[in-house]
Amino acid sequence: MLETLNAQPADALLALIKLHNADPRPTKIDLGVGVYRTGDGDTPVFGAIKAAEQILLDTQNSKAYLGPEGDMGFVHALIPYVFGSDFDRSRVEGMQAPGGTGAVRLAVEVAARAGAKRILMGTPSWPNHAQIVSAVGLELKTFKHMTAEGTADLEALRAALADAAPGDVVLLHGCCHNPTGVDYTNAQWDEIAQMVAASGVLPLIDLAYQGLGDGMEADAYGLRKVLAAVPEALVAYSCDKNFGLYRDRVGAFYAVTSDADALAKAMANGATIARASWSMPPDHGAAAVRLILGDSALTAQWINELTAMRARMAEVRERLAAAQQIGPINMAPLGSQKGLFSMLPLSGEQIMALRERHGVYMAGSGRVNIAGLTTGNIEAFVAALKDVAG
Ligand code: PLP
Ligand code: LMR
């Protein structure tokens, strides 16, 4: 039977991890998968996480099952950070999920069970978004995320919403847009909140990089604006970047409603989907986050570590922007883009030449993880770009 399966291409981005690992050149540069790296090229475990893990080691006396919703102490501890300390807690409930990916999957499946037919989404986007929408069996309607000038394309979103039908969901990146680094401005979010409310579509906000843009509060601006304007919304959250937990798979799915019965049903459906998919989410990383957020000293340590990450990314962006113009590539916008990613307008041949001649690994889309540039190799990267595109 299994021979009847269709062949599947390997996930291009994950394949890049292996290609980079297999390259023996010591000067190779990994700008592929979205993990933060220090100026020395490391992705260390946060000190706050190490401290929380020590507490877990010393005090956790059971690993008995918790349930499909996971660690509700974790889920609730995040609420003030995501939704704001003054958010009406009766409107929101959540459950833990295996990473932001599990949270997006739950959100899309719950929307489908509620009758959603179509997801409206700006492109380019994180490639897994389209895969999840397709796996759940919903239709995807795309619009342009970015203008030719490299700003967020509000008019394209406006047109998509004007054209929306009942049963549509709009998927928005809360901050640090993947793959472009081009976020909506606060003034644009003000308009988006009104546009989404007027359209009646259900917003699904994916917040996978809170704190990696301008800070924990600043990066929640758009989400909070939209949630203040609409009766219902879904949120997919990841702690894998802002707590450096990646492989521990730490995320949360939230529903916001104006109706307690609808909220309970959203959670009950999420729990049913989780039960049939992974039964219960992995506990360890979420328990560590709960301990951090419940302890003011650990919270301060975590915020300091996150602030240092942001400062380093700002420095890398400043140095890249200082290259100004490389052939047809305008480097200046990289200075003000947000988060781990930016896109360079490179051809497939140029991306292959960067890999083969210079050991520079980046996604086929031209997306670069700017945190992959170390203190020692930014100049080499700029020189490699000049070689292939200058
Ligand atoms: N959403 C977006 C926009 C992402 O870029 C990612 C990638 O990490 C995720 C969700 C999923 O994150 P996680 O690794 O927590 O599953
Ligand atoms: C990325 O886009 O590199 C990250 O979000 C990791 C992933 O799961 O794709």
Automatic annotation (TrEMBL):
CDD domains: AAT_like. GO terms for cellular component: cytosol. Coiled coil: none annotated. It comes from the Bacteria. Keywords: Aminotransferase, Pyridoxal phosphate, Transferase. GO terms for biological process: L-phenylalanine biosynthetic process from chorismate via phenylpyruvate. The keyword Signal does not apply. InterPro entries: Aminotransferase_I/II_large, Asp_trans, PyrdxlP-dep_Trfase, PyrdxlP-dep_Trfase_major, PyrdxlP-dep_Trfase_small. Residues 27-385 form the Aminotransferase class I/classII large domain. Its cofactor is pyridoxal 5'-phosphate. One of its GO terms (molecular function) is L-tyrosine-2-oxoglutarate transaminase activity. The keyword Transferase applies. Belongs to the class-I pyridoxal-phosphate-dependent aminotransferase family. Homodimer. This is Aromatic amino acid aminotransferase. It comes from Novosphingobium sediminis.
